[in-house]
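Lab meeting prep.
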Amino acid sequence: MSGHSKWATIHRKKGLIDAARGKVFQKLAKELFVAAKSGTPDPDQNASLRMVVEKAKAANMPKDNIQKAIDKAKGAGDNEHYDQIRYEGYGPCGVAVMVDCLTDNKNRTASFVRSTFTKKGGNLGTDGSVSYIFERKGSIVIPNTYNEDDIMLSALDAGALDIENDGENYNITTSPEDMLKVKDALSEVGVDTFLESEVTYLPNMEVEVDDEEKKEKVIELVEQLEDLDDVQSVYFNMKD
């Protein structure tokens, strides 16, 4: 599993309290707005939008909220938009951290991200300083309550690159282009619970952190970055 998947698992185990759930939905609404505004607002005709819709469904975002975000994009003027910004840096123990943001105020976002890195023992790097460590992949996570043979056969036939059973979930990796195809194939064999369904970034090399206290410091940095309103996703390469 990647650092990103590890964080998703930690986040699920903690449970989403109402305030945190609302923040997740706000961030998803931004992604839906951007995807719908950049193309047609019809998910069937806009692959990028459909990917975000599937991600929102996996997070249990209400259908009404999803549709409101798409409808907002339909009526948005040219002046209403979000800039996509990526920050790269290192956390404690040399763990690579990549932060994707959507913002309407670049200066505010830069200040918050930089100060969070500094306060939590990390430092920002230059563009490209860690992005080469991550690869864009499709990530699907489902409970391992489903028949393993059915999952393996349907996912691999649909183009899955890797399937891991961690004892709790099936973690399925795909190419970005095949993520929706694999998800549809899983649905056809009866999968109706998706804990994660999105195109993300997974590390191609990982950092081993043996000290539990230092591991916790990395998690604290990720948690603080995730909590920033302008931050959409945080990826890191600490080994499980």
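Slide two material, second protein:
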Amino acid sequence: MPIPYRTSDKEKAKGAKFRYPSKRANLITVAIRLGMLLLMFLSIAMIVYLHDAISEEDQYVDAQTNINTDLTYIDALYFTVISITTTGYGDITPVTQEARLMDTIILSIGRVIMWVIIVGTAYQFIFERYREVLRMKNIQQGLSDHVIICGFDTTGKTAAQELVAKGMKKSKIVIIEADAEDSQLAAEQGYVSIQGDPSKEDILTSAMIQKATSMIITLSRDDTNVLITLTAKDLNPNIKVIAQVIDLENEKLLKKGGVDVIIAPFVAGGNLMATATSQPHVVDLLEDVMTARSGVYLNEREVKADEVGKTPKSIPGRVVMGVVRDGKIVELDKLDKLKLQKGDHLLFLKKK
């Protein structure tokens, strides 16, 4: 039984969430930064303490009693914290030139580091959230005539790579993936990535499905694929849906649901493996012409007006492998005498 498509146990997808290549601030990041800040305080306090301890004269004076005394480590830590945080009570004061020079250099550096850490963390948690909202709006406004891929498993990744190989920009490919890690991976690879459930209307709306041309569904449950198709067709009746079918008995359900092209990967894979037992080079050739990455691949286009009435072989500069008429591929043995008609589609080899 196929594994249901569901949100990762590590991170539940709640609504549309755009993913970006840059890493986001989180509690672990904050904990690390606070740890660095504490370590800096302790280190500088130790420097102040040792500096006063090894010096022949007292470097600091208690401003309340006006008595020069040796600093304890607690005194040094207290002096460091109030100095770096600019609280500056003035009850412990550097009185020698050497102590004042150290305060000017070391404590000032610590003060700068502290504010960099504080401001940087605040920026990631507050300001970057507003920036992400603006980025999301800009991405959505720029989406048009794009392709949506539901699922970033092996099939989804391969589909995205093939689209890029055939000349599509990554900014025109939207990945919808519920798993947080896979969604982040898609973003890191340069695609527009949305973390969420592709069967939800708000997720598809965030992907600007109204302006999309095609949708590829690669999920491992036929019922989920039907639900996604129904939702997609309701939002955009003109979108072309390509979906894989796991159980061939569900093929008719996918067709009724509105899937335009149904792919049975297990059946196709079985056919190729059977062919490879006696004709391995045929399999190699089929793989070459199926993908643009090899340099030559099968392409499809509608017959031009000046090609009507001609035979497929008479078209210059094209190696025609097939003709589609009324949605069906014409048998190969009939291509020699076939006269092209308006509305026919040519299947031909194309160089990248």
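Talking points for slide two:
Residues 27-138 form a domain with the Helix Hairpins fold (CATH 1.10.287.70).
The chain has three domains: 27-138, 143-263, 295-352.
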